[in-house]
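Section 3.1 - Work completed
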Amino acid sequence: MTTSTTVLLATAFIAISYPVLMRALAHAVQNKRLRLAEIGALLSRRDDLPDALREVTAWTLETAYSPWVMVQFAATVPWFIVDLLRGRVPHHEIADREVVKLMDELTGNHIASVAAANPFFALVASLECAVVIFIAFPFGKSIEASHMQIDALARVGQIKHRLRAA
């Protein structure tokens, strides 16, 4: 087989298999996307939700199908590592345990949804998050690293708002 034939066959295989993979991923996360919308509606109706969390909730609903969120997430992880080591990671202190549970589920479902929209950068971001945990643990920062979903998504949302304003 010549090189051009091999390239042609590989291109054909990718062209056929990529849409099938994306459809399978979309089908696999459909229940999470529906639950994301349900939780978002619950949180949006709460009067006691802080503005920062209300913005994160709205942003997760707006970007649930975006392939660009994983690219942005992967790009912000290195800065998150630096901030984590410097002790400058913002925390959203939430007194209501129900809201904490809902926000954890909301962000988890959002990450699954956007990971299905961009599986390559989901893999990159997963590897980066593993590095965060390995770096954070020896410095006693494992709690911050394990709860980075809300903070990281809030950071990606802030960058998106800044880009829109520019």
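Second construct:
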Amino acid sequence: MATAIIGGLQRFMLTGVVNGQAIGLNSTVPAQNTTAHAYNIKMVSNVTATVDSPEQIAFNGADAEQERLFFGTNRTSALEITLDEVDETLISFLGGTTVDSTTNSAMPIWTAEANESDLPSVAIVLAQRGRIPASGAVTWFNRVYPNCYVLSAVTAPSYRAKTTTTLSVLVNPSSYLLGGLAISSSNLGISDGQLSHYIIRSDYPLALSAFVKNGVATGFSTEYLPKASDVDSSASGNMMFDAGVVTDPSAFSTSNGAITGLDAGDGGEIVNMLYETEYVPTS
């Protein structure tokens, strides 16, 4: 790849995770034979990151520093994300609460206050659009934070001011890539098998859908149409993880988003499809 010019933030994606496997806006694995999708929007106005530096110990002698050892690595430990929208479903999920549509179905009740002991583990993807100057080709840089906890807050009403949502993100080291592949099984060369974030470069922005097997069904459908029908998960814009293992389906339709040819497997196993898209809904 040639040197790239990377632009501003374009997309925000979030999903609940279990051992790196996406499960949509759920804090636990959904029922078998259920499809869930990552939350995906473009209304992001600002992101700041806190990066922790490794500890250093200097060894001195002969009136000079002789050697310096580093312990740890540069890792992102926190993010502050501002969304220019307020979504009651997202905020309730992040806070470990629910939207109450039972007390009065015509007037849902929800809160931005959190059950701090019940915060779900989530993965966050921040997508930036870039360009390769040598060729002029457009490319996308997707920053993946696979193991996070999030506290959300909605700004107070103010005269002639928009209301925004602030996400305070605690970024934890993860042993898994998004999709459930163990980092130790990847070719990233991470010595301790953990990282706080990584980057996926793609030709189009990404979406993600999850399916929980029931031991019978051999297919499901994504939320958006994929850009390509290529099913080579090791060399295309579509990458499927079956129980954390990179696997190829038989087919992935660009006309309706249907994925077929899965191994029926065992009930409760999770399939993740990470795919390039232009966000055309499948229905």
